[in-house]
Amino acid sequence: MDLFPSSNFHREDDVKDNYVAMAFVLGVSAVLSWLVISEVISPLNEYPGPFLAKWTNWWRFALVRTGSYHIRIKELHDQYGPVLRIGPNLLDLDIPKLVKTLYGSDASWQKTEFYKNNSVVINGKTTYQLFSEIDPASHARMKRPIAKFFGHGMVLSKEVLMDKAIIDLCSHLEYRYHEKSCDLGEWIAFCAWDILGNMTFSQPFGYMDKGYDFDHSLSIADKSLDYFAAVGQIPFLDNLLDKNPIIRLGPPNLGNITLIATKHLTERLAAKDFKPSGALDYLQHFIDVNNSDPNVTETDILMNLLTTLIAGADTTAITIRTIFYYSLRNPPVYRRLEEEILAAKLAEPAPYSLARALPYLEATVREAMRIHPSVCMLLERYVPEPGLTLPDGNYIPPGTAVGINPYVLGRNNDIWGPDANEFRPERWLRGEEESEDAYRGRMKRFNAADLTFGGGSRMCLGRYIAQMEVYKVVATLVSHFEIELADPTSEWKVVGSWFPRQKGLKCHLKSRS
């Protein structure tokens, strides 16, 4: 007779605990063994990079969350060289010769899953737009009906819509900040969004009238891009967070902008006798395509509107802020820019054709886009068959994710020279002792290494809008105001997300009139 029957239960519990512990140890061992074997047999193990990056994409996710991704990646290239391994299956290439290969017209270089979380759920279905659609055939189908509306001539016909917002910008700045300090960078963002409102709906969002981000759409757009940049490193996270079918956990979405776009679309469709007072806006163009092409749905119209709005404001604001920040911190540069613009005696707002003809303004714009591009992360692509042979003879197998970072490329000493980290617009001008052939050859190298608007079939559709806005806003502000930094010694803050956003462009303004 067992006088202590409970002891059996304790022994059984101990056995169970031992099995659980053994199972855990075996599971961890299996995972570690798989990681080690995968790394040993990986064709990428010959390429250098941070230790953790070789094993997991979580290293990159954590780096993006710091806001200093672009700076750290440039430091790692300086340490390891032009081919940098930043993931188990991802190489960052600082090789200018490969720009045309990766981002040319060859559709076999497909986007990776990184881009897919930049999508929305409509009626329970994940819906992609031009930027987030990775299938080349679907992308071509989306782009074909609307591409003509973003051509150079069509954009020029809408200059009057842009003029309204630029006039408002000067009026607000003069009324609110004459001989006072203001956050010029913030107002440039307000103007950029109101310009897009005019060009898209023939109506501004109202950020300049209110004088602040009154509906929080601008701050939410920033958070959405932060989500996109981070979660893109671990794409399956999007299915657990934004696209979770049970309960959506995040991120802050573009609900306000979506509601505004939906409201304008609904009202415009109801007003069948709508007649524009001036140039046609993009909403009307998209509706006209819907009326003429049965394959284009109202959902397509909405996605085109959101693409136009989300991608078009922050990028141009970043470039305009960069021009003023770097040139004002370099007085000889700003004096030369100011003298050229004032000597041209431009009307207000500055006509694009005349502003674009100013050579030093052109050089300053190009230099700003080089040193602080509007995208500071990798433009990922999958290597197609039969693989990629690098200029040094090394081979990258098909299926590997590769890409070039515009921020890193813009600081490549082989292309831009030993002063690549300096803001020097003169590099875009012909030197006094430079021959015409030498100058043309240098410009050819510069242009071949330009990823400002991407390349090939994936080149930014709104590039002509952005160019027109940058030249017109800069030329008009310089013509209208005496501008100086409130504190020439202060540094601005740059948050390195997908877009490297700047904060802190405080300036003194004084109307020239």
Structural class: alpha+beta
Strand-residue proportion:
5-15%
Q: Termini, distance in Å?
A: 109 Å
Instruction: Tell me what the CATH architecture of one domain is.
Output: Orthogonal Bundle
Question: Runs with pLDDT <50, length 5+?
Answer: none
- Radius of gyration (CA) equals 26 Å
CATH topology of one domain: Cytochrome p450
CATH class designation of one domain: Mainly Alpha
Q: Roughly what percent helix? A: 40-55%
CATH H-tier superfamily of one domain = Cytochrome P450
Strand segment count: 13
Strand order of the largest sheet: 1-2-9-6
In DSSP terms, counting alpha (H) and pi (I) runs of 4 or more, how many helices? 23
What does it look like?
- The protein has 23 helices and 13 strands.
- It is α+β, with helices and mostly antiparallel strands.
- The chain has a domain at 119-375 and 451-511: Cytochrome P450 (Cytochrome p450, Orthogonal Bundle), CATH 1.10.630.
- The strands form 5 sheets. A 4-stranded mixed sheet has the order 1-2-9-6.
- Helix 13 (255-270) crosses helix 15 and helix 14 (282-292) runs antiparallel to helix 15.
- It is globular, with a radius of gyration of 26 Å.
- 39% of the residues are buried.
